[in-house]
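Posting here for the record, re: D-glutamic acid.
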Amino acid sequence: MQKQSPIGVFDSGYGGLTVLKEIVSQLPQYDYLYLGDNARAPYGNRSFDTVYHYTLQCVQWFFDQGCSLVILACNTASAKALRTIQQNDLPKMAPGKRVLGVIRPTAEVIGTFSETMNVGVLATNGTVVSESYPMEIAKFYPGLKVYQEACPMWVPLIESNEHTSNGADYFVKKHLHAIFEKGPTIDVILLACTHYPLLKEKIIEYLPVGVKLISQGEIVAEGLVDYLKRHPEMEGQCSKNGDRQFYTTDSTEDFDNHAATFYGEAVSSKHADLGV
Ligand code: DGL
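Prediction output follows.
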């Protein structure tokens, strides 16, 4: 029998479930293990060091559960922790295992959506300050101009289930207005936080006509399909029983009550004991 080695999918909270949903729909045959570090979310306003330490601890947890491949389905963790984990930690802690993020697959394709080559990136404070998007996008589309806007209230609104309330309109309008002031010819808005698809309906209401709204779920899922094709040695290690398991570092009851909004179906989670 094949050793259980689910693909790990990580987020600070619920946002990564929007990515997992797309991954599962494109690659249903694999086993998946989701971890939300809800006890310490949101990560968006935390320091580099803190996000790095939290993320590394969660990556180690995935490895302890038998995962060979872990996706950081969180832009903040991808921006602040991924490179150090890949370059410094993995060679020591688990040289045969892999950790991937969501920024590179998004940067690889974002230019194909834009005609004006002016793209707006909405993200957490941490992702914006890291400059990861402008740097990664420049590698693939050197002529593309990236405008960034941090939306620090959006994740707290979503995590506290206030994203459909009238109060949320204020914060949506505020940041859309700000980003179009910076880049009036932006024709693509990228939701560079895996929580933000929950605000999609409100964002569309205030988006100028003709501007495309891009979220990352499908892009990351397509990137994973491609990665597994190009890395048969990794693909061969991922177990395929169609199994899904959900873990949270906080209350499983809260997780189960909120998760369906992000994942699209009910889940039954277990507690991950990371000592937090
Ligand atoms: N979902 C995470 C992201 O994609 C961030 C949420 C947080 O602030 O923790 O950036």
